[in-house]
Amino acid sequence: MDWDKIIKDAEFEQSQHLMRAEALADVIKSAKRLQGLGEIARATPSRKYQKTSRGRINPTREAVAKILEENGGPLQTRDLLPRLRARGVEVGGKDPVATLSARLSNSDDFRIDRAVGWWFSNKPIPIPMPSQVTMNEAEDRSLEVQPSASDTDQEGGDNRASLI
Questions:
Q1: pTM exceeds cut of 0.90
Q2: In degrees rounded to 5, what are phi and psi of residue 98?
Q3: Is the pLDDT reported for residue 56 higher than 50?
Q4: Angstrom distances, CA of residue 45 to CA of 35, 40, 53, 58, 148
Q5: Lowest mean per-residue pLDDT among 27-31, 116-120, 155-159
Q6: What's the 3-state SS for the chain?
Q7: Residue ranges per domain, the chain?
């Protein structure tokens, strides 16, 4: 009988079982940690209602949520700021736009799409319908298509061709 081979095979099997036992122990440990996090998450209020370091609920996030709901679509930071001020919410900081952007970036409640602005992180960004074009946008479009006085000559003809 080859005792060295038997010992070597047994040690190999033992190491395989130990590695599997360690892997299972890691799985159990991770599962318990995740289970505990789930219990903590159920016991902890959402970030939206957590108190700030000064002991009060964050009025900025609540006001932004109401403003976005009322607007029905996303808004840029520079457009949110005057609406917050109108509601009595002061953002503060050397650069209030940057401060507001930082606050919203640190919130799980909102996300930024640089093309359209801030919106709720748990809702799809609404796509504006043609009927939602504002009067200013319609006026801007009408101004673009009408030629100015300098584009026509004195006889009422189009002078743009002579510029080429």
A1: no
A2: -65, -40
A3: no
A4: 17, 10, 15, 13, 60
A5: 155-159
A6: CCHHHHHHHHHHHHHHHHHHHHHHHHHHHHHHHHHHHHHHHHHCCCHHHCECCCCCECHHHHHHHHHHHHHCCCECHHHHHHHHHHCCCCCCCCCHHHHHHHHHHCCCCEEEECCCEEEECCCCCCCCCHHHCCHHHHHHHHHHHCCCHHHECCCCCECHHHHC
A7: 12-44, 59-120
